[in-house]
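Pasting two entries for a bug report.
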Amino acid sequence: MPYSLFRSAPLIGLAAAAIAIGAACSRGDAAAKSANGSSAAAPASTATTAGDVSGTASIAPQDSISAKADRGRILGDSTAKVWLVMASDFQCPFCKQWHDSSFAGIVQKYVKPGRVRLAYLNMPLSIHQFAKPSAEAAMCASVQDKFWPMHDSLFATQRIWERLQDPSSFFDTLANHNHVEMGSWRTCMSKHLTLPLIEADYDRGRTTGVNSTPTFFVGSIRLTSADADVAGALDAALAKAK
């Protein structure tokens, strides 16, 4: 199976997707946080079924940097029959909420045993000032197969770096902490070498109906919000795959 997220993962397309409602960040949620930075309350998640349009939208740039970064943000056994694709924004408070409450459990129960393959789709929303720089920090680490440690570190420290005037030195510290080769990572960051892939991710997500983060794709199911029953969708997809 090809490693490219865009060529191998079954992303789900909707002909006319509505703006997602739930514990999620959207392009119009500039007031999602109060003055003290806390997340706004939101109702439960929604799930929508749709047809598979894998391969019909924009394809990730195929230069060596993009290819390595693409490969690095996919986790799990290549023979797994079920994909979980999560569209996320490192500065979205609801993405952090899902990460902190559910991510490790999903990896432990489904990904590590080889039952599910997991991929990250960058959806840096314009309402978040540092969404793209944080995505670049993760994807430049992904070039060195360090995406997932950087992913965890960015969410763990989100409430620190999002308040900085310029978080670039903080991202540098996180990369160093995660044993990234710093010379190559800094070159990648300064030259924005993974930005084309991030922007392709965003275009792909918008084409396939992503209007808020986090959004999850499991088989023919699209789920939105931090309250989404991702485990239940995976169980159903695995049962169907048998």
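Entry 2 (this is the one that rendered wrong in the viewer):
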Amino acid sequence: MTLLRRLRRLRDHAVLSDQAYQFLFDAEPQDEAVSLDCETTGFDPRLDAIVSVAAIRIVGRRIEASSAFRALVKPPVAITADSIKIHQLRQQDVAGARSMAEVLPDLLRFIGSRPLVGYWIDFDVRMLDRYVREMLGIRLPNRRIEVSKLYYDRKFGHAPPGTQIDLRYAAILADLQLPVRPLHDAFEDALGAAEMYVMLADMRSRGARLPRRSEAGCGFPVA
């Protein structure tokens, strides 16, 4: 943990407005994490809102998909046509859903103090932080694990300059030979990120790396 993160964590712990959520600052459970994904009305954390959220616990190398947290969310702003094209959720689909203020307490209890895993996880946490600040006066203190960084380290960590690097979600799934899943569904995206994490964490523990094609294009794999 960096000094800056440690100081921010101490400050947030001190200003936490509801002591019932002290558990967010507990020590991380050993070898546990939560894969998280949000679908939103857009890509501006200051203006846009969450329309669905999913979280899946990972214990060791086991993905607990059957007990995942899943919720549709009724946003305070209209769902735009552009965002509907991405996640397929219309205003009528979330009309009977709870607000994020109602969903958040259950989500935080599900997450606890576990690290948060995801693809583009910083964006998801920034979206959640808006609601967490309103409720608790802090940002989420949980450590974040970006699966695209884990993938980069296993495949491109020692690549020479000029190497073509592809960190797209679909490209990582394909390279790891994981099942193709529907995109922009909170549960499916969280499950895909969890599968990536388990595979890449196992590779890291063994010191294994993903092969690259030679830069000369002759098809020989290079370490």
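Dev reply: Rendering is fixed now. As a check, the viewer should reflect this: Residues 215-223 have pLDDT under 50 and may be disordered.
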